[in-house]
Each structure stands twice: as C-alpha cells, then as structure tokens.
C-alpha cells in the first residue's frame, strides 16, 4: 500500500509530466564549474583557499540526485574524480584507478578470476561498492544505462570511451529512487566531455620490475564545431594492451622470479579428533597434496608411495612431514590431504596466471545539432572490443581418482611383477598431468555495439525555466569464450586404460571407444605425449560459449522549479523509462548436451562414449544453452523543498523522491528516498541525512539460468535418496529490497581554515530477500524444516522419478554498517616563501559490520568485516599528496588496508581448545596481515600542448599475503592485495 507521501509525489510527477510533454524543448546548459567532491579544495585554476564564485542563476547537476537547481545541496554523499585526478593515476584502464577508492570493494578485473574456467566474468572490469557485489552497483555513462557485458547485467568499464571522461561521480548511497534497479550500493557515473573541441592524445608504456606485464596505450580524440558551431562532432579511438603474467608451470615457483609464493593452505583435522584440545585448522606453507605427483603416484594399496619419473622409471616418493604411506591411502605425520615440504614439483597453485593478457579497443563518436541556442539533438555510437586470455592452471590434476589396471602395458615390468606378488589387479593413481603439451588456456572476447539518439535542452513553463533530456538506446554485447587444450573426461579415462590386443599392439580397452578413435595415452611417468592421443582427449575445437545480450532503453527526464518558496525555489525532477533486457547463450554440444542427431562434423563428431544428452563432458568449461528476456516500465519524481533560510539558523532543505517500477517477471515494486541537508550558521559546517528504500531486480542469469541436469543423491528422512538434480533459473524470484540510512557532517572551507574541507558519513544498509543459490542438500533440509516454497521445487517420494530443482531463492539477507571519511586541503606555498601549490587528500572507509545470513538451516549469520580473505577489510585508505607549479607536478600516494582475520567465525587457540564445530571451528592462528602500498608519479609540461609523465606503482614492491584455501590453488587474494608488484609507466599527453 502506498503511503500518503508516495501518492503525493506520484500525483505531482504525473501532473508535471503531462504539462511538460506539450511544451517546447530547449537545451540545459552545462555548468561552467563543477565541484570535484563534497570536500574538495579549490580547483587548480583558482586562488588557493577560495571557492570559485558561482552565479545565482547557475545550476549544478551532481549524480547523487536528479535535481539541478539554485542553491541545492544534495544529501547523498558523492565523491568525484576529475580528469586531472584520473590522469595523475596514469593507469592504462580507468577501472584500476576507481577500484582503489576505499568505498569500492569487491570489483572484478584482469587479476581476479584467473583461476576460473567457467565463471563467465573473466576479463570483466566491473565495479562494486561496499563489497555488496557488482550486481548491486549501477554503473552509468553520462547518466545513461549501458548494455551489460555479462548475463548478470553488469557493465564492463573497459568498453567505455575513457579519454573523453572529464569526471567520475561515485555515489556512496542507495540511489534506486533516482536511477532505478541495481543502485543498492550506489552509482558510479562516468561523465564525458560532450562538447570537446581540439585534439588530444595519450601514449603510454610500462612494465613490472620483473620485466613482465608489459603494457602499451594509445588514445586520441578530436572535436570540432561546424556551421557557426551548431553542428559539433567528436571522435575518439583507444587501444591498450597489457601482456599479463604467464604461468611458471608446476612446482613452488613464482612467476617471473617472484619469490613470495609458498603453497599456503588450510590443514584441517577431522572434527572427531578435536577433543584433544588442539585446533581443527592450521594455515601451513609449502603444502604438498599427497594424492598425486608431477608425473604420477600410486596412492593406495601395497604399492602406495611409488612415483614415476622420466621414462616411467619408478621411485619412492618423498613425502613431506617425514610422512610414510600406510597402504590405506593415508600418510603418517600428515593431515589428509596435505604434508608439509617434500617433493613439491607437482604442485599446481603457482601455475595460475597472476594477470590476464588483456587488450581493449574502443571507438566512439558523438554528433550533435543545435536546434537553437538552448536545444540540441545528438547521436552517439560506441564500438568496443575487449579480449583477454590466461591459464587457470597447468596440467589437469587427478587427485587419487584414477584406477590403473595391472595389465596396463605402459607399466614398468617391476610394477607389474609387484602387482602379481601382492595379488592385486589394479591400484589408485594420481597425477598432475604435467606431460600435457599445453596448459589449459581461456580466451574471452566481449564486443559492444551501442547507439544512442537523444535530445536535451531548456524551455519555459509558467514563467519558469525547465530542462529536459530524452534518449533512446540500443546496445548489444556479444561474449565469445573459447577454451583450448582441455580434455574430455571420458576420453581421457578411456585413453589411459590400455591393453594389448591379440597382435600385441597397445589399444584402448573399451572396444566402443577404440572403434570411435580412441588412442592410448601413457600417463605412467614423464613420457612424450602421442600427438594422436592428445588430439583424441583434447580435440582442437574445445569448449565454446556464445552469448548475445541486448538492451533497449527509452527514457525522458524533466527538471525545473515549480514556484519560489519562503526559503528558495521548490524544484522538481521527474521522468519515465522503459527498458528491455534480453540474452541468448549457446555452448558446444560436448558441454551443453544436445540430441545425438544434432552432433556431427569435424569439430564435434558423434561419440557414443560421451554423454550427448546431458553434456558436462569437459574437464572444465561445460557451458550450457539458455535464453530469456524481461522488460521494465517505471516513473519517478524527485523534489527539493527549501524549508529554512535564516541568518540565525542557517539554511535547510528536504529532498524527496519516489519511483514506481513494474517488471514483466518480478512484478511491481516501489523505491523512495527522504533526505535533508542543513547548512548551519557555523562557518562552513553542514549536516546531511538520507533514508531510502532501494531495490535490485533479479537479473537474466538468475531468472533464466541455462538448465543443467545430472544425477545425484541426498539424505532425506534418514535415507539416501537418488535424485535427478535439475539446475535451472527461477522466474518466481522477487526483487531484493534494501534500506539505506546515512548521516553526515561536512566542514567545507571555513574562514578560519581556508582551503580545508572534510566530511564524515555514517551508513547502515540492510538488504532483505537476497537472491542466493543453495546446494541440493540445503534445499532438502529447508523443505524438511517447513519452507513450502522450496518444497515445491522437489519430489522425493517417487522412486525412479525423484528430483530436486536447484535454483535461486529469496532467502538470504545482508546488513552492512560503517562510515566514510574524506578530507582535502590545498594551499599556495608562497606564504612560506616556497614555489608552487600543495594539495593533500585522503579518503577512508571503516567497515563496522558486514553480516550475511544465508537463511540455511544449521547456519548462523557470518561477519565479513575485517575478513581479509574477502573484500571488506575493517579499514581501507587512499591518500595523496601533490605539489605542483605551472611546469612540474609530483604526487605521492598511499594505499592501505588494515590487518584482519581469515574468518570471524573461527576460534583462535593453540592448546586447551574447545571441541571444534561446523559453526565455530578452532584455528591455530587467525591473523591475516593488511598491506601498505606507496606510489609515486609526476608530470612535466614541456609546452602548453605537450606533457611528459611517469608513475611507479607499489614502489616498495610489497608482496601479497598468503590467502590459504582448502586446496593449494591460487592461494592469494587479488581482490585486496597487489599481486603484480612494482610497475613502471611513462607517457606523453598532447592537447591542442
């Protein structure tokens, strides 16, 4: 039911929109001077310690609100980076600059997901605010939505025309009432220079101190007015390439000479053994997984501990921890499945690429025509292609899950004799498959085509000036993922199971496989791989995924003053939007599973040994088919009401907004905002507060996930029940509902501290009905506990027809609290008889709580604040100190985040530990250090048009902290730590 406030706002919006639709159009002028942040010191072209005067008639539009009005100060905290800030960072991709902001936590880039084959987000540069995830951060270009680069709907910042960006606004508060779905954590808005005139270019190159990750960037933009400046054209083109950091292969060897990698994992004892007062968990270095070796290891039975080397020669494996194999699969003095030290040559963790090879190409144009002095129509087109490739791991480790028959002709005679002497027919075997000629390599390519036509301007209505902007957008993103040098599980298993036929020739044991091209593969030791065998188990076509995603938008917005009140003008912004999102994805037949009749041809021939219906045949990268679409209709109204203007009490205003939205899938939902600011009579002191209801609608992936069907088992009413596990989307999902509250204090350039500004903002965010995925057993347990919605997704009492539908549900919740601090100070140094100007700026975020409640039976809410294995450390800081004059500028930057823990649910103890539990495990040491990174850069103006610059990131070459996992794979956390190392860059900027 709508509140009276909501009904009033809607009525105002409808009445105003109807009146404005019949009015003449005119253009809204861009403000001549835009404040860079809520707390920024005076701009470079102003006298230090003063604020540039803004004529009363001028208006300023800031991304935290749709309102643009005289004297309006928005209540929602917004931090901005100017083009000068972005240039000083000297990164080849603006994404990397923004991801360093303290409020941006959990963003994805080219150093994240490099250990993943099937996540779909590899190479995706997407921003996340507050650690709430990229799907809860709305990223805009000139206030407009951009087609997603992934089925989750998130955008790829790498596809934006970055050279023309003149400002980036980061709204660190809920903004759904103003901008719509997904703005739960906030909004990141890239503002381009729409009337750029002249020519500018940027050329940059760099590399790390390890002589890898070499990069090159070339950007150019041109703009010019024609026909008395009524026609304006802008064109830009960008190319950048970062070569990445290749895998060093197997063993505990860091890439490119890096020495910090040390196979760190969690060693975990069984719960039943924790009655002895010792902890369950311990983080260990130099972990050796004793279930396989580099070229093969017998892992069970009387021959356990026999490894194989060059030419298949057997030898006794060197277990760490002075371990001795027991013949049962276990090793004494080791905790399953790890020993410490010993032969680490087969470990695979260091073989993950630290950074992807990454290439971006962007072409952008904007054409505008001034209908008159106040109105324009325009057209923009953007073409962008982002390519990346990387290796998630070397080889393809098989962890004691292979069975080798003793009559396998590739076995040395001594092993065959030992089999006979011990009366065994087979043994368990594990190998890192280091004999493979190539590592798995993944190649995602995202291509965007986006077109916008629009109009903006100003007009007069009832004696008041109003502005409008309207646009229609069509965008497409195609994502092609190709995986090379990866094996088919069934073919691999058939190829390694070899026998001799009647003629003595070595062939595959499985007659059906042999008849369909099976070539025997020798995995007993280090032997050259037969190219024919490699071609059989790793066919050249490999897994593929082809995704087409489209977005269509029609939007109109109006902004103006309704009447002059006692304390200032009552201002309003209102508008409506229609949007359609659509996707279609196809995988290869070996991964997706199709009818046998549709398989054929050289790339994917029919093979009866493969599961042609279900798919899932690849070692990884089993992409499936899916499709779906939805549309959205919404309208909003936002009001600014000045309520106080007094020499005694200061100035205050209320900011109110309401948005009504109808999704074709999720139904109707409302979002609203109530905010206020008070400019006190105390010099420079201002208070702000805002409360909002924000929403995130289920995305295409959650609604229409590609279906996957496999067989599985669950525990139900004390019995093991065989079921068909059907993984699908859930079209009955509801929108996530968030409540954002914030309160802030701002001190902006008081007379007693000219050039100084600071702000402190407290935030409290609650998100309910969070969309999350459960395991098949968790769903069954929730049904037994009485959740009827989940019970409808399964049948468990019909033998032969039992199934459980695994899908997303609105079960979880999030609760986040913290505060942001931002300060800036700028002064001329001539008062100290020194040349130049000095600027210091600092931004910090303190996360007090980040509580996640999964809604799963038998679990408790978990605290994520200060967990450095995740994205939200307790403290995160970015500070810069700059000195500049007319020719030279030098900048020092510090990036810091605080020490943390592996998990807040662990109980740290060394002796006399309580019995460990699933909810509160015990751990020997629960500390994970933070990090400090220092960057240094500068630029020199050779002339008015030419600038040279340099930048050194991670000046001290600070190593990342180990991030132990349950397995020795990629034991670092690139979401927080710099995994690349010291990086040098230099370049030229030309502006004419």
Architecture blueprint of SSEs:
Elements: H1 4-21, E1 78-82, H2 83-89, H3 94-99, E2 137-141, E3 165-171, H4 176-179, E4 186-192, E5 198-208, E6 215-226, E7 231-242, E8 265-268, E9 281-284, E10 287-289, E11 297-298, E12 306-308, E13 314-316, E14 338-340, E15 357-372, E16 375-389, E17 398-405, H5 413-421, E18 426-431, E19 441-461, E20 464-484, H6 489-496, E21 498-500, E22 506-508, H7 511-515, H8 531-537, E23 544-564, E24 569-587, H9 589-592, E25 626-646, E26 650-663, E27 667-679, E28 685-696, H10 700-703, E29 708-716, E30 719-727, E31 736-748, E32 756-773, H11 776-784, H12 788-791, E33 794-795, E34 803-806, E35 808-828, E36 837-853, E37 862-863, E38 875-884, E39 888-897, E40 907-908, E41 922-923, E42 931-941, E43 946-953, E44 983-991
Parallel strand pairs: 2-4, 30-34, 40-41
Antiparallel strand pairs: 1-3, 3-4, 5-6, 5-44, 6-7, 7-15, 8-9, 10-14, 11-18, 12-13, 15-16, 16-19, 17-18, 19-20, 20-23, 21-22, 23-24, 24-25, 25-26, 26-27, 27-28, 28-31, 29-30, 31-32, 32-35, 33-34, 35-36, 36-37, 36-38, 38-39, 39-42, 42-43, 43-44
């Amino acid at each position: 039911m709508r509140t009276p406030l909501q009904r009033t706002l809607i009525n105002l919006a409808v009445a105003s929109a109807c009146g404005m639709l019949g009015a003449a159009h005119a253009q809204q002028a861009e403000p001549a001077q835009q404040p860079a942040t809520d707390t920024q010191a005076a701009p470079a072209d102003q006298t230090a310690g003063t604020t540039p005067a803004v004529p009363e008639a001028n208006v300023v539009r800031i991304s935290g609100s749709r309102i643009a009005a005289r004297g309006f100060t928005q209540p929602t905290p917004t931090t901005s980076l100017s083009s000068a800030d972005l240039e000083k960072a000297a990164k080849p991709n603006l994404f990397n600059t923004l991801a360093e902001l303290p409020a941006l936590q959990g963003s994805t880039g080219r150093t994240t997901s490099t250990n993943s084959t099937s996540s779909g987000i590899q190479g995706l540069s997407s921003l996340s605010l507050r650690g709430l995830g990229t799907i809860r951060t709305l990223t805009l270009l000139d206030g407009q939505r951009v087609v997603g680069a992934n089925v989750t709907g998130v955008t790829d910042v790498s596809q934006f025309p970055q050279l023309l960006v003149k400002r980036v606004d980061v709204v660190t508060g809920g903004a759904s009432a103003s901008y719509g779905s997904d703005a739960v954590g906030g909004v990141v808005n890239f503002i381009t220079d729409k009337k750029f005139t002249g020519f500018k270019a940027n050329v940059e190159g760099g590399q790390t101190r390890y002589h890898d990750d070499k990069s090159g960037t070339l950007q150019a933009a041109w703009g010019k007015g024609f026909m008395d400046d009524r026609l304006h054209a802008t064109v830009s083109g960008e190319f950048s390439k970062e070569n990445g950091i290749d895998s060093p292969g197997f063993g505990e060897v860091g890439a490119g000479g890096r020495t910090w990698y040390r196979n760190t994992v969690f060693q975990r004892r069984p719960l039943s053994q924790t009655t002895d007062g010792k902890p369950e968990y311990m983080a260990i270095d130099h972990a050796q997984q004793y279930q396989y070796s580099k070229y093969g290891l017998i892992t069970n039975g009387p021959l356990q501990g026999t490894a194989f080397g060059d030419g298949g020669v057997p030898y006794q494996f060197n277990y760490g921890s002075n371990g001795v194999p027991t013949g049962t699969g276990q090793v004494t003095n080791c905790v399953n499945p790890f020993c410490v030290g010993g032969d680490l040559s087969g470990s695979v963790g260091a073989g993950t690429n630290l950074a992807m090879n990454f290439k971006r190409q962007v072409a952008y144009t904007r054409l505008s025509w001034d209908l008159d002095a106040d109105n324009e129509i325009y057209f923009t087109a953007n073409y962008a292609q982002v390519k990346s490739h990387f290796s998630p791991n070397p080889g393809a480790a098989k962890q004691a899950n292979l069975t080798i028959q003793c009559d396998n002709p590739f076995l040395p005679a001594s092993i065959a004799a030992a089999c006979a002497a011990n009366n065994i027919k087979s043994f368990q075997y594990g190998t890192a498959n280091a004999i493979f000629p190539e590592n798995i390599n993944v190649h995602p390519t995202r291509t965007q085509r986006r077109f916008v036509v629009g109009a903006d301007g100003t007009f007069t209505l009832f004696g008041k000036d109003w502005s409008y902007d309207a646009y229609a957008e069509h965008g497409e993103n195609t994502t092609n993922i190709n995986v090379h040098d990866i094996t088919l599980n069934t073919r691999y298993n058939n190829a390694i199971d070899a026998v001799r036929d009647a003629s003595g020739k070595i062939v595959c044991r499985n007659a059906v496989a042999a008849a369909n091209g099976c070539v025997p593969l020798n995995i007993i030791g280090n032997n050259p791989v037969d190219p024919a065998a490699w071609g059989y188990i790793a066919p050249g076509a490999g897994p593929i995924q082809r995704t087409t995603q489209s977005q269509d938008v029609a939007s109109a917005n109006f902004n103006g003053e309704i009447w002059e009140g006692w304390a200032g003008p009552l201002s309003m912004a209102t508008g409506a939007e229609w949007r359609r999102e659509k996707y279609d994805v196809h995988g290869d037949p070996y991964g997706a599973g199709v009818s046998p009749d549709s398989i054929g041809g050289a790339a994917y021939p029919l093979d009866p040994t493969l599961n042609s219906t279900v798919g899932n045949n690849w070692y990884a990268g089993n992409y499936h088919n899916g499709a779906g679409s939805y549309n959205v209709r919404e309208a909003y109204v936002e009001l600014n009401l000045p309520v106080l203007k007094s020499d005694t009490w200061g100035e205050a205003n209320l900011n109110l907004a309401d948005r009504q939205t109808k999704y074709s899938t999720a139904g109707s939902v409302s979002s609203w905002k109530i905010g206020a600011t008070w400019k006190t009579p105390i010099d420079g002191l201002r208070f702000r507060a805002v409360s909002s209801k924000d929403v995130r609608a289920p995305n295409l992936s959650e609604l229409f996930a590609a279906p996957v069907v496999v067989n599985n088992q669950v525990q139900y009413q004390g019995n093991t029940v065989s079921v068909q596990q059907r993984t699908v989307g859930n079209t009955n999902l509801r929108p996530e509902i968030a409540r954002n509250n914030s309160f802030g204090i701002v001190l902006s350039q008081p007379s007693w501290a000219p050039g100084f500004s600071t702000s402190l903002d407290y935030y409290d965010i609650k998100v309910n009905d969070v969309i999350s995925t459960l395991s098949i057993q968790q769903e069954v347990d929730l049904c037994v506990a009485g959740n009827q919605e989940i019970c409808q997704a399964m049948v468990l009492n019909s033998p032969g027809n039992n199934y459980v539908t695994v899908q997303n549900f609105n079960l979880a919740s999030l609760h986040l609290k913290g505060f942001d601090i931002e300060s800036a100070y700028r002064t001329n140094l001539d008062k100290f008889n020194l040349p130049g100007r000095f600027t210091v700026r600092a931004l910090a975020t303190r996360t007090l709580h980040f509580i996640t409640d999964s809604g799963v039976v038998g679990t408790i809410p978990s605290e994520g604040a200060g967990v450095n294995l995740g994205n939200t450390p307790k403290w995160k800081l970015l500070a810069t100190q700059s000195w500049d004059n007319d020719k030279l500028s030098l900048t020092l930057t510090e990036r810091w985040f605080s020490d943390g823990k592996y998990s807040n649910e662990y109980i740290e103890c060394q002796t006399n530990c309580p019995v460990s539990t699933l909810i509160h495990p015990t751990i020997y040491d629960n500390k994970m250090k933070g990090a400090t990174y220092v960057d240094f850069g500068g630029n020199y103006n050779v002339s008015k048009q030419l600038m040279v610059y340099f930048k050194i990131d991670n000046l001290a070459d600070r190593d990342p902290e180990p991030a132990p996992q349950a397995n020795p794979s990629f034991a670092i956390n690139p979401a927080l730590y710099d995994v690349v190392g010291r990086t040098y860059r230099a370049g030229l900027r030309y502006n004419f």
